[in-house]
Amino acid sequence: MLPTRLVHFLRAATLAALVIAAGCQTAPVQEMSDARQAITVAREAGAEERAAKDLKAAVDFLQSAERFLYDRQYDLARRDALQAKSSALDALRRAEDSEDSEAQ
């Protein structure tokens, strides 16, 4: 059996390692990529003309995410990247709906 002091030390070291690991956030690489791709697809679908407001919101969120990423505020960068993707998908839907309306 281990001495009590050693057991307490190992518990404290394990707890410290867990706290440090929990504090280590990873960069939202996939989320940033998804947002960029969604914006590109929305642009290709004509969102600049048919859904400019949603597309601008997507671009603004992406730029904000990039600033947070630069500052290593990964949670905030992830949040804004997800919002950028969502806004880009809204722009894509509006652009496609507008195109369908024009075709009829």
- The total domain count is 1
The topology string of helices and strands comes to HHHHH
Strand content: under 5%
Q: In one word, what is the shape?
A: rod-shaped
Tell me the span between the first and last alpha carbons.
81 Å
Q: How is the quaternary structure best described? A: single chain
Total helices: the number is: 5
Helix content: over 70%
Give the tally of β-strands. 0
Average pLDDT score? 88
Largest sheet: none
Verbal overview:
It is a single chain. This protein has 104 residues and is mainly α. It has one domain. It contains 5 helices and no strands. It has helices at 4-23, 29-44, 47-50, 52-70, 74-103. Helix 2 runs parallel beside helix 5 and helix 4 packs antiparallel against helix 5. The radius of gyration is 22 Å and the shape is rod-shaped. 29% of the residues are buried.
